[in-house]
Specification:
This protein has 463 residues and is mainly beta. The chain has one domain: Porin (Beta Barrel), CATH 2.40.160. The chain has four helices and 22 strands. The strands form two sheets. It has an 18-stranded antiparallel β-barrel.
């Protein structure tokens, strides 16, 4: 258990929740769910209505102890309705019930007021995953409502894919489309003869969800380092609860993308202003330099970036680059100032996909983060490098699929190995079996979960 985690448990206010919150009904989620269910049952004479349902059962066992980590049943209802020639409605309502895990009611602090899920007892949760209107306006499209936007060209590297916050309740083990938390936004795009434009306005204050329990972070890369005497248990600091993102129009996230496609090449310029999705703990010190309080704080981020992709015979090259003049990182030596240092950061990623295999794909990716100035006072290195390798191969007309992947940090020498086999038994039913294995020292981003290796079974039935 990290000193940060131990302090949270001792003070008991790190993620304290009023008991009333545990039983109150989330009116916004309830009303939204009723609207969506009503739309599903309505006779929409303006156009066709498409309803679909997916049942998913997930079971995960710890490989070391055999303990059941997850025993989850999900029901997902999707709605696609054509209200008129220019207007469409899309919705997704999800119910989860996990017999092996209790609801973390403090998760509500991560959500904006109109985005919170509705908890049902200790194991049930009802979530309006998405609900938006598409309005075709000539060459423009206005998408208004709860949605996700994925910018950038790489998979999971998150150089430019920063629009949506993340649900880290299972770290990065869930599919990335499920890890993104959908938020309410105005999303307008326009396609001209040579250029395409996209504008985002996001007043939703939803931030990334960092869990308690099994996948609670403990690495010094993402949690504050305490002074040696405090680490020995002299006196834990007071840790204030997460206040959530700041609300108000002046704190709304803004995004702009300008794109152009030319002879098989796609180029995009991106500008983004947003509140950070993950908080950092700002320290206050006493006269002896001991940390007395830690206050979760969200900083404003301004970022500029570019993405590029090009098809080259059997290969596809993908790349993206970003620059942020002001990012904050934890100090290596505690007891100095706020415990954070500010640096400008360059991030870039490059990927190469090979489609030369028969019904298969081999993908290689490189990610580097480079800080301006010295990093001797920081927990992280000035240059941080990660690699990923993924192989996907279909067999027997895509009845079976084998997926193998590796993510490895060159700096921390830790990573994640994954393997899964998918069997599409029918057009409606699929079964997959997977293994996830973390390795490395506990101080690394992946190594901190080296005791969380698991074997999982997933069954999906769609109709």
């Amino acid at each position: 258990m990290s000193h940060w985690t131990r302090a949270c448990s001792r003070v008991n206010i790190c993620r304290a929740v009023d008991p009333v919150m545990r039983i109150r009904i989330n009116k916004t989620a309830g009303i939204s769910a009723l609207l969506l269910m009503s739309a599903m049952q309505a006779d929409l004479q303006a156009g066709p209505l498409n309803l679909s349902t997916e049942l998913m059962f997930e079971q995960a066992h710890a490989t070391r102890s055999g303990t059941v980590h997850k025993l989850n049943l999900s029901i997902v209802n999707k709605l696609d309705a054509e209200l008129s020639d220019d207007l469409g409605l899309h919705g997704n309502l999800r119910f989860n019930h996990d017999r092996r895990d209790s609801n973390d009611y403090s998760q509500e602090r991560s959500y904006g007021h109109y985005s919170r899920p509705h908890y049902i007892g200790q194991q049930g949760k009802l979530t309006l995953q998405e609900l938006y209107l598409d309005w075709q306006m000539g060459s423009g499209l206005l998408r208004l409502g709860k949605q996700q936007v994925a910018w950038g060209e790489t998979d999971g590297m998150r150089v430019l894919d920063l629009v949506n916050p993340l649900d880290l309740s299972e770290f990065v083990l869930a599919p990335f489309d499920e890890i993104r938390i959908l938020v309410w936004m105005l999303n307008y795009s326009w396609i001209g003869e040579e250029y395409a434009y996209q504008f985002l306005f996001i007043p939703d204050t939803t931030r990334s969800y960092v869990p308690n329990g099994r996948f609670q972070p403990s690495s010094p890369l993402v949690t504050p380092v305490l002074a040696p005497s405090q680490a020995a248990g002299a006196q834990d600091p007071v840790i204030y609860p997460d206040p959530g993102g700041r609300s108000g129009l002046k704190y709304a996230d803004l995004g702009l993308r300008l794109g152009r496609s030319l002879a098989g090449r796609d180029l995009n310029l991106i500008l983004l202003r947003q509140q950070s999705h993950e908080y950092l703990a700002v320290a206050s010190l006493d006269a002896t330099g001991q940390i007395r309080t830690l206050t979760p704080t969200y900083f404003m981020r301004h970022l500029a970036g570019v993405s590029y992709s090009e098809a080259l015979d059997e290969f596809v090259f993908r790349a993206e680059l970003s620059y942020s003049p002001r990012e904050y990182f934890y100090q290596r030596i505690p007891g100095r100032g706020s415990g954070l240092n500010r640096r400008a950061e360059w991030r870039y990623a490059a990927a190469l996909d090979w489609y030369g295999m028969d019904d298969g794909l081999l993908s290689m990716q490189l990610l580097q983060s480079v800080l301006a100035g010295s990093a001797t006072a920081l927990v992280r290195d000035r240059v941080d490098t990660s690699l990923s390798l993924a192989l996907s191969q279909n067999f027997l007309n895509q009845i079976y699929r084998l997926d193998l992947s590796l993510i490895h940090s060159l700096n921390q020498k830790d990573g994640l190995l994954r393997a899964s086999v998918l069997w599409n038994t029918t057009d409606h039913l699929s079964i997959s079996l997977g293994v996830d294995s973390f390795y490395g020292e506990a101080t690394g981003l992946f190594g901190q979960f080296r005791e969380r290796d698991r074997v999982s079974l997933i069954m999906k039935y769609a109709f």
